[in-house]
Amino acid sequence: MAKVTLSIDYDYSFFLLGISCHQPIYKFCWSVNKTLKMGFKRVDDLMIQFKGKAGLIQYLKYEFIDDLAYREYYLLENHSEKSPLIPEHKQMDFFYIIKGNLTAADCKVELERMRTVPGLLAAFEINAEHLKSKENLIF
Prior knowledge:
Blueprint: E1 15-21, H1 25-36, E2 41-48, E3 57-66, E4 71-77, E5 94-100, H2 104-114, E6 120-126
Antiparallel strand pairs: 1-5, 1-6, 2-3, 3-4, 4-5
């Protein structure tokens, strides 16, 4: 009998920002909601099983769906008690993901908008294609 291997190619066509901030994620979301007139709400946590680590690791996740612009916005916590979500960027506190209808100009605008949020120390764009642990951002 022939052996068949399933190969899955995920879609990494989303805008990803790394965010550094000394605030807890719930306070940062409140600042984003107030400053950018968004509606982030906490949703089910992101649960990931890492190779070589026992049990699922939990990361806080906030979501805002903009039906008019056909976009989904997510704020993910990068740190847990056991491991960072993206070990290549362990200095980042959060990740800001935008999925949907985006152009390169929209991405620049979103980066500049995010930089106006009080409490934000740094925000920069990350190319998800170059991350070793990019599968952790698929949910």
